[in-house]
Amino acid sequence: MTDDGTGLLTIGELARATGLSVRTIRYWSDEGALPPVARSAGGYRLYDAGSVARLELVRTLRELGLGLDDVRRVLAGETTVAQVAAAHVAALDAQIRALKMTRAVLSTVARRGSTAEETTLMNKLARLSTAERRRIIEDFMAEIFEGIDTADPDIRTRLRFAAANLPDDPSPEQVDAWVELAELIQDPAFRTTLREMIEFNAADRGPDVPSGSSLWFMSRLVQLAGDALREGVAPDSPRAGDVLCELIGDADPAAVLERLAAATNVRLARYRELSALVNGLEPPSAHEREFAWVVAALEVRVAR
Hints:
mainly alpha
């Protein structure tokens, strides 16, 4: 405290009272966050008790990460601490999401042992905006369904859901899955495979066939083949023929076999698995044993 009886504090005394350095207080003062209340005869800055309280608020806001511009606006009454805090929380959330995305991409790069070119592509795919990701999905859907009006609508719905967007706060596993999924749906060969599957579905589907019929067939296949496996029915046995008859009726076994080959493509199974990961769901069962049994049983009948 100065000895002129005013009760004002020099910058050094203010520093000792608050535990802050003279340099920090001087900087904040120069920036307008802590203007002196007076000057001594020698031109030194002087502060009062109110300055101590103001300085504590400045310190608190700075420790919370607020810039001096925001601090000055709060002190000037142009905004409230609550309003600035809300804006700062939003900014921090964006920074945290960006850091998580960076961590996820780097984790994928390390796991894959990626080249510089692959790293650049992964980073670009991971950081696409929501609109950009949606454009990739819409382009994918438009190409594989172009000109096919009789495909089961349920297939379109499920494929669109499967290619869902990356969440705002993804895990490293979700980022990894999205990058691989984006690479997959932009691959012309994979698009051709999916389109063939959809063409098979639409080939003999009339306008009166209810939506979801193809999915019902797959569910029925899993059930009947699962029962056959549990009962130990061999694919080349007469009993297997009865199971196939129950499943496909009088349909051509060769045609059914061709369609199943398209529906059980390894890359299509990977697409479903990646989609589940992006959506935060458990990967679906591929029912590989059931499909393999039906395929084997069909192959026996086609070969005869």
